Amino acid sequence: LLSDLGDAAFTYAIKNSCSDSAVAFALFIDQLKHPFDPVSPSKLRSMLLNVVEKICSACEIARAEELRNEQQQQDCKSDPYTSLLNFVVTDGESMVATRYVHYSGMYMNSLREAAPKAASLYFASGSRFEPEDVSTDKISSVGNESCENDNSLRYRMRRDSRRDRVVIVTSEPLTETSGDWVRIRTNHILLITPEKQILMS
After folding, report:
1. Which of 31, 80, 82, 99 could be bridged to 121 by S-S, CB 3.0 to 4.6 A?
2. Is-contact 141 129, C-beta < 8 A?
3. Phi–psi pair at 147, nearest 5 degrees
4. Secondary structure of the chain in the HEC alphabet?
5. 97-106 pLDDT tens trace
6. CA angle (94 as vertex; 91, 95 as ends), nearest 5
7. Between 41-73 and 20-29, two packed helices, what is the crossing angle to 10 degrees?
């Protein structure tokens, strides 16, 4: 993966210790011809999909090479590879998020060795996300100093109209109200446009 990067993206990956997230982001920014040029929502989505495809391809190549080495040594003891590829990227206007799992090798569909599951990822949308006073069941605005006991507050996503103004993407639901949160489907990508339109594919 590093060998295919341009100078700027390669330098970024090296300066950030070539961690998995640093290399993934380097693959992403390497697709930008000019760092400060605006990127359309569809282009942002396409760029993130390219990152996922490149990582999956690299995993398959590494797996095939390992299997060839094992066959030469008559030793087939390696474990399957699993990559949990949850990414969230934004340019400050649009946002894209992936919930993806990729695995190489054979998994038995059994209680002992089941195919891996994707890491969790959820989103919530509405008109506003604000605290709710549990004791009085009244809404208090964020930062309202009249709230005497912060421990009595819980947050809710409120919807005053059909048009979304707030979208939150998170690995786990932030509130106990399950109806606020939608699980992003496995191996799907979520696109949020500047107009807060939500598209999952």
Report:
1. 99
2. no
3. -75, 115
4. CHHHCCHHHHHHHHHCCCCHHHHHHHHHHCCCCCCCCCCCHHHHHHHHHHHHHHHHHHHHHHHHHHHHHHHHHCCCCCCCEEEECCEEEECCCCEEEEECEEEECCCCCCCCCCCCCCCCCEEEEECEEEEEECCCCEECCCCCCCCCCHHHEEEEEECCCCCCCEEEEECCCCCCCHHHCEECCCCEEEEECCCCCEEEC
5. 999 999 876 5
6. 85
7. 130
